[in-house]
Amino acid sequence: MARPMGVLVAATAVVSYLAVVDPNESGHYPTCPFLALTGYQCPGCGSLRTIHALAHGNLGEAFGLNIFAVAMIPVLAFFWIRWTIASARGRPVRTTLADPRLLWGFLALVLLFWLVRNLPFGSFLAA
User: Fold this and answer.
1) Measuring CA to CA, which residue among 99, 114, 102, 97 is closest to residue 43?
2) Which of 24, 81, 80 is nearest to 51 (CA)?
3) Given a cut of 70, is residue 97 above it in pLDDT?
4) pLDDT of 68
5) Residue 67: is its pLDDT beyond 90?
6) Domain tally, the chain
């Protein structure tokens, strides 16, 4: 149980820090290197502001900043809960990350989101 609890403590610390230190104010966090170099947003652009908005209960604002990050939170929670239950029951946790089809599908979703948010018709996805 130490590893799942360690991840929970780390995630709680990150969310708590982001709740207190506003990423909307300049000077607190570095600029996205991809955005700085290209002028285009990466799939993670807006994620810090999204977590800050969620920490303050602003779900609508969070969706507007990075809908993909918001959509991934329940997925991450599901896998963390599954890992925690397996650890609590003493079951071995999978040594492989996931089915390759799932990983390739996830990569395709990330790349599609990345592409669409930088096209004119997908500008609503850009924060």
Assistant:
1) 114
2) 24
3) no
4) 94
5) yes
6) 1
Whether 58 shows a pLDDT value over 90: the answer reads yes
Q: Which long-range contacts (CB under 8 A, 24 or more apart) does 50-54 make?
A: 50/127, 51/14, 51/15, 51/18, 52/18, 52/19, 52/22, 52/23, 52/24, 54/15
CB contact at 8 A, 126 and 117:
yes
pTM, to two decimals? 0.84
Contact 42, 66 (CB under 8 A): no
CA distance 59 to 65: 10
Domain range for 79 is 2-125
Place of tokens 């993909």: 68
Question: Taking residues 17-44, what's their average pLDDT?
Answer: 91
